[in-house]
Amino acid sequence: MDQDYATLLGSCPVPFQGATEVLLGHGSGGKLTADLIERLFLPAFQNPYLAKLDDQAVLELQGMRLAFTTDAFVVTPIFFPGGDIGRLAVNGTVNDLAMSGARPLYVSAAFILEEGLWLADLERIVRSMQEACATAGVMLVTGDTKVVNRGSGDKVFITTSGIGIIEHALTIAVDGAQVGDRIILSGTIADHGMAVMSKREGLEFETEIVSDTVALNSLVASMLEGSAAIHCLRDPTRGGVATTLHEIARRSQVGIVLEEQCIPIREEVKGACELLGIDPLYVANEGKLVAIVGREAAEQIVERMRGHRDGQAARIIGEIVADHPGMVVMRTGIGGSRIIELPMGEQLPRIC
Amino acid sequence: MDQDYATLLGSCPVPFQGATEVLLGHGSGGKLTADLIERLFLPAFQNPYLAKLDDQAVLELQGMRLAFTTDAFVVTPIFFPGGDIGRLAVNGTVNDLAMSGARPLYVSAAFILEEGLWLADLERIVRSMQEACATAGVMLVTGDTKVVNRGSGDKVFITTSGIGIIEHALTIAVDGAQVGDRIILSGTIADHGMAVMSKREGLEFETEIVSDTVALNSLVASMLEGSAAIHCLRDPTRGGVATTLHEIARRSQVGIVLEEQCIPIREEVKGACELLGIDPLYVANEGKLVAIVGREAAEQIVERMRGHRDGQAARIIGEIVADHPGMVVMRTGIGGSRIIELPMGEQLPRIC
Q1: Predicted model pTM
Q2: Is the link from the previous residue into B325 a cis peptide, with omega within 30 of 0?
Q3: CA A250, CA A247: separation in Å to the nearest integer?
Q4: A61 in contact with B at a CB cutoff of 8 Å?
Q5: Nearest to residue A26, comparing CAs of B156, B127, B151, B162?
Q6: Tens of pLDDT along B177-212?
Q7: Chain B within 8 Å of A9 (Cβ-Cβ)?
Q8: ipTM score of complex
Q9: What are the structural domains of chain A?
Q10: CA distances (Å), A156 to each of A70, A117, A193, in order?
C-alpha cells in the first residue's frame, strides 16, 4: 500500500465495517451498502438531492419537476424464467422513476460487453429491451457500448438511466411515512430472486418459478389518479421487502409493524426458499411495490390496485407506528413477534 | 446453439461483418461499433432521438430543450498520469452534454465493483469525481453500486449519465456540417490515449505523457457567447480525430480535407506513437473538441478559444468540401494527400 492510500484510509476515521476491500455484501442493499453510501458517497457529493437517498433524484428545472435515476444490472444468468438482463434493466429504471410518482419518458442504456459474448444473445437482450420500452411507454434515446477483454467482465452488464416528469403536486419520498399510515404490498414476494436462484442452482419444481419483472408505472399512475394520500412508494428489489421497510423506518424515523400472515407468497416460492434456507422477506422483487398511504385511504387504494393487472394480489401488510422508530417488527402467525433485522451482507449476490 | 439463437441470427440477413461473437473491436468506435449500432440498436429502438446518432439526445420537454447522455467507462489502468477512471467518467459525460451546446447540470454514477477492489482505491476515485463535478459545475444527484464476484469484472467500471439544458436557439449536431465550413481543433491530439498506453506498457519518456481529461463546458460556453456560427461540436474520444471526422463527413454527407501540418501534437506523444506504431489521428482525446464552424466566423472563434485555458492551442485544421462526400482526405506536408480510413477494429482497447 503506497502512501497515498494510507493517507486516504487514515482520513476515514472508522473503517468500512472493518473492511479494506470491496466485499460482495457492499452490493447487497444491506448494511454494508448503506455504510458505503454514508461514509463515502454522501460526504463526497454533498447536495440535497443525493442526501435524500431516494431511488431517484427529483430535480426542479424551470418550474418543472423531473425525476432522474440510474441503475447497473449485473444479474447472472443473463436469461432466466420470466425475463433477462435487458428486460430487468428497462423495468428497473422505469420503476425507480415511477416510485417518485413520475411519468417515465426517456431511458438510456450503456452496455459493457465481454469479448466472446454471442451476438445472438446480445440481439435477444436488445429485443427484450425494445419490448419492455414499448410496454412501459418509454423511449430509449441514447446509449453507449464498451467491450472488455475476455475474463474482465461477465457476458454483459447494462446500466440504464431514466428521466421522468412529475405531473402532480405530491411529495412521494422515503421519508414521507407518518404514524398511522398503512403499508400496502402490491403482490407476492420473492418471485424474481427465487426465479434467478432456481435457474442458477439448477433446481426444478413442479411449477416453474418465474420472475415478476414488470414496469409498474401504469399501476402507479392508476393509484395516483385515485388518491392523494400516497406518502411513499418503493419497489423492494435488492434486499427484498425487509430492506425496503428498514429504509423507510429509518429515513422517516417511525416504527413498522408487519403482519406475517398478510404477506402473500406463492407456494412454490416458499418451498424453494425453505429448500435453500433463504428468508423470502429478504429476496428481490422486480415487479412489486410497497406503498405507505394514509389510513383512511388505504382500503380504497388497495381496491383500486386490485383492479389493475399488476396489483391483483395487493394487500395491507402492516402499519406505521410511533414505537420503536427505525425498527421493523413482524407479528407472527402464532401471536409472537420478531425483529426484522437489516441484513449485513449478501445472501443472493448478482440477483439484479 | 439452440433454435432460438438460430432464428435470431437468421433474422439478421447480413451477419455482423462476419462475426458471431462480440469482438474487442465492437467497442472501438470504428466500423464494428457502427455496424453494431446500425444493425442492432437502431432497428430495435426506432425513434428520432436515437436515429440522430449524436453523443447525446436532445429532448423537447414542455418547451425546454434538454440534453441527455450516458457513457460507460472501463479504462485500464484505473489510475493513469493526469487522471483516473472517475475523473474521466465525470468529464466524459459533461463533455457529451456540452457538445450539443447544453449547460451540463446533473450527473448520475453507477459503479460496478469487483469483489476485492481496495476501498482506498474506490475512495480515491470518488474524491476525484467530486473534484471533477466541482470544476465542471455539475451535481452528482443519484447513483447505484453493484458488486460482482472476483474475476467477473475488472476492479471498477463506472457509467455516468447526465442532463443539461440548452439555453440558445442553435441546432448543433453531427449532421450540421456545411460545405465551406472550417474545422477547428481545440488543442494537441492523442494525449489521453498515449498517457494510458504508456502507463499500461510501462513506457518511460523524458517528459511524462499526461492525459488531457478536462471538462469542456466552459470552453463551449465561451464559444457560444462569441458566435452563432457553430454548426457541429464533437469531442474526439474513442477512435480519435479520424473517427470523429468520419462520423461528421458521413452524417453530414460532405467531404473533409485536413491539413496535416496544422494538427498540433506534442513531441513526446508523437514519439510514443512512433514507438508503438500507432497513428495519433486514431488515438483518444478526453479534453479536446472538434468544431465545425462557418467560414467567416472561423478566425474569430479560434481567437476566442485561444483566450480560454482549455483552447490555447486551437487551430483551423481543415475544411468541409463538396467533393468526396463521406470521405476524409489529408493533405500531407510534402504536397501529397491520403485517404483517412475509418478503422475496422480496435487499436487501443479499454482506453476510456
Answers
A1: 0.94
A2: no
A3: 5
A4: yes
A5: B156
A6: 999 999 999 999 999 999 999 999 888 888 899 999
A7: yes
A8: 0.94
A9: 3-12+171-339 (3.90.650.10), 52-166 (3.30.1330.10)
A10: 17, 8, 19
